[in-house]
Amino acid sequence: MTSTERRPRRTARAAAAADATAAPVDEFDRLREIFQARLRGEHLQLVLLSASLARADESQSWIFEDLKFRAHRLRGGAGVFEITELATAANALEQAAILACETHTGNTDASVWSALGALVALLDGMQNAATLTIARAG
Amino acid sequence: MHREISDRSTANVEVDLEDTILTRRMEARSTCRVLVVDDDDIVRARLAALLKAAHYDVEVAASGEQAMRVLHQGQCQILLTDWQMPDMDGLALCRHVRIDHTESYVYVLMFTVRDSKQDLLAGLAAGADDYLVKGAPIDEILARLDVARRITHVEHSLRISNRENRRLAVTDPLTGAHNLRYLSKQLPRELARSQRYGHPLAILSCDIDDFKQVNDRFGHEAGDQLLRAFVALSEGCIRRDIDWLARVGGDEFMIVLPETTLQGANRVARKLRRVFALEPVATHAAQIRFTASIGVTALEANQELDASAQLKDLLRAADRQLYANKRRAGRADLEEVAATEPIARKRGRNDIN
Predict the structure, then answer these.
(1) Over chain B (353 residues), what is each successive 10-residue block's mean pLDDT?
(2) Is B12 an 8 Å CB contact of chain A?
(3) ipTM score
(4) Are B90 and B99 in contact (CB under 8 A)?
(5) CATH number at residue A68
(6) pTM score, two decimals?
(7) Among B10, B38, B43, the residue to mutate for chain A (most A Cβ within 10 A)
(8) CATH fold group of domain B31-168
């Protein structure tokens, strides 16, 4: 190669792509695992809450409040991890729980039961799957 | 063949340009700090990891209060905040940012699961610059942050430019000293402060002797060099960040000495004349030795101006003193000057009570 020829070089684009994918992969994996662990915990809590709701006679408002809180957190986490299906199911439960709180509905509220059942089934399915399909950055 | 070479070089130029743009964007990102605020630790950590991978500097906060503490350090240009948080929520945080941060602009991107139009409008009304619903794809989040970075960069450039314009407006371009505009604005403030707290204030009125001859004999460039030397030498004789100097005419300067009595001001004047006479100033035309005439006036502690006396009287007194010295001694030693009796009266102890 003579001095007048252009030297092959690593372009800025290549460097940027390498930086964005190589270094933080471990961190993304670690966070994904933490989120999976949280989903397992939430699954268990939602099952327990559905049992409590089924047994509740008068004071079920704390259950709706708890459902609302958990669904909201699940929706936010799922959104950031780009799990659209989970975010949608959590949103449905959050909206149903908000309505149930506002209207002081009883433990037979169909929309709450329907949304709760769908979310628990989804989490159940995800837990049974070998891996969660959580989108990676980059 | 020629055409082929030409096409190749055009392609190379385009690649180089693209690389340059990308490199600059990466550099700009690394100097742009984003504060991620979310009460959910996993969401916070995930967002921080994504932004770091995209070459942003990232700070995190778990609540509105914590975010305000980080923002007060003044290091973050972009705020990416959740809405629903305990205590201070995202809306309250937005409002606080808009009230508290007037020194430099903080771009607020609200990032929430609340997706109704009403929520969006409420977020923007609270002071958010942009609004994004959680679940948006990563590339959209990064694209919005790129917009935020561009806007904060423009705002920062404008702020620097405005500051420089303000500085230039009160600076004499030739010598770098303050100008008449600064004197007219700042001296009344110094005077008011002196009057309010009963502290002394002295003013030196200076004029380079025979400056016209310097211009005539050695040219204007040498005259300009002499003016710059005058300022540099004078600044070496006064207290930095307390005393100040302004060029008020061709070779006329005012030196303002807060917290300085007439006696102290006379000492400064003598020091100045000694320094001016000590070493000749090297100009492109010749080594020029110069002298200056200095008039001194002062308001002593607890001395107040008569009701009829104005700032201009104080300046006039300094000028009178200057010309008296010029007439009396020519280039001789500065005499001790009388107190500013004509424009001021001594406030007696009883007057204070």
Answers:
(1) 42 54 51 92 95 94 94 91 93 94 86 95 97 94 95 91 93 95 92 88 92 91 95 94 94 95 93 90 89 89 61 78 73 36 32 25
(2) yes
(3) 0.74
(4) no
(5) 1.20.120.160
(6) 0.67
(7) B43
(8) Rossmann fold (3.40.50)
